[in-house]
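can u do me a favor
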């Protein structure tokens, strides 16, 4: 409601009003551009890299949440399936991927849960890290969007995450430890426009 009131106060002319009708639509819903991006790509989506200027702009853009309506839309299920197919493809063979890496500025990640039986990949919408415990530890990292490079990054080994359950639209929290916690931190950084190379020491 606060977002809508701010938009309405800004309307002063018919032209501006027309533009703001588009800008002030529910930011949590899928846009037509997003629908096209998801539906028109194959099962294995193109991964954006820092080597392309247009890609880099997307990778550096902070992401928006998805509304309960967007999460209940079949488009979300299609996106989740394609993100998992992409990160597990022979071309990528990764352990995590975030929305911006497939061209979507949305707070959604797919992460391999090494802390669960069978080490499954799972998708987490509207995810945030809400707690970190202990001292950060160094570890080697790479990134699908930074091909051909690796570096040592400090990460916490014990964190809490909060995300939305698509079935209910309600938020839940979970404690994550070990290497899986490191993956979550790497992917959530992507949602804020941060790359692991930003956290490398000067000598790296």
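np, heres the sequence
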């Amino acid at each position: 409601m606060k977002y809508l009131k701010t938009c309405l106060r800004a309307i002063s002319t018919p032209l501006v009003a027309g533009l703001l009708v588009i800008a002030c639509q529910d930011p949590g819903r899928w846009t037509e551009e997003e629908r096209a991006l998801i539906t028109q790509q194959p099962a294995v989506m193109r991964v954006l890299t820092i080597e392309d200027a247009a890609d880099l702009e997307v990778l550096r853009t902070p992401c928006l949440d998805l509304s309960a309506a967007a999460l209940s839309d079949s488009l979300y299920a299609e996106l989740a399936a394609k993100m998992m197919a992409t990160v597990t493809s022979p071309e990528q063979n990764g352990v995590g991927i975030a929305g911006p890496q497939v061209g979507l500025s949305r707070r959604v990640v797919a992460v391999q849960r090494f802390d669960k039986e069978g080490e499954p990949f799972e998708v987490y919408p509207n995810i945030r890290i809400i707690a970190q415990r202990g001292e950060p530890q160094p570890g080697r990292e790479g990134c699908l969007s930074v091909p051909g490079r690796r570096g040592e990054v400090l990460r916490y080994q014990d964190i809490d995450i909060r995300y939305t359950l698509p079935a209910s639209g309600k938020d839940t929290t979970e404690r994550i430890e070990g290497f899986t916690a490191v993956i979550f931190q790497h992917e959530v950084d992507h949602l804020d426009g941060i790359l692991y190379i930003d956290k490398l020491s000067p000598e790296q």
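The chain has seven helices and eight strands. hope that helps!!
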